[in-house]
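Attaching the record inline, Q. Sequence:
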Amino acid sequence: MAVARSGILWRRIFAVLLIASAISYYRYQQNEFPHGGSRTGIVYGVIGLGLIYLLAFFAIRKRWYKSTLGTLEQWLQSHIYLGLLAFVILLMHTGGRFNDKIAITTFILVFIVVASGAVGAVLYVTVPRMLTEVESNLTVEEISDQLNQLAKNMARLSSGRSTPFQRIYDEVMKESSPGGLAGWRLLLQRGRRRKKGYDSGDWPRLLALVPKEEQEELRQLLVFSRQRKELLLRLVFQQRYKNVLEFWLYIHVPFTVALLAFAALHVIAVFYYGRIRW
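Structure, as predicted:
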């Protein structure tokens, strides 16, 4: 499988580069006082800065459909592992020492971007699989039309019926509605459905009160109710999973833009205030 091969390849590349970086840093701290303004510290900083801007190119590559510079999946795998490597190298660049607010802010942004990127990698794997489990060949608009039609059919069946029938209609309409924030609850609870409305012990008594001549209509009402509830749950799942991915982008992308700006500002400040010490 291509995805698996590219993932394994970049994991190996990441492991090799991480070991090489660790060895170089060990030798560095043996011979020099580690800080961002030393020669080796500057080398780490240049490499880290280059990785940051290279990783930012992934957003362009996603929209560059005619590009032949590797597949989108390969770029994604490199984006994940080089992002982790960039964090490590920039930590080596600092030597654990932060001299100004711009440097501190820049490193905090690096941490947020890398951490949110790791979360995004997990979402990229899990959310599409969840969507596959709940999506149908119906669009959101088509599901909404079916829900409206089922509601009309249920209202038509209950019109002019007995009081017990009307009470059952009211209860199944409540029960088939997920309620506020239901999509997030369903997402966090892995699909466990919480029943609302009448207690299970009250239903047989209520159903028995329906006149015999309305039993066929009652059966149709319950069938419509079950269909409506399933469609509602499917719609909630489908929309919430998509919203999770969009919400993640609203965090990752703005912080990435801020990181690019502060990284450039950090470089300018270093040269302006002459903080490089050879």
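Residues 140-241 form one domain. The longest helix spans residues 215-272.

More tomorrow.
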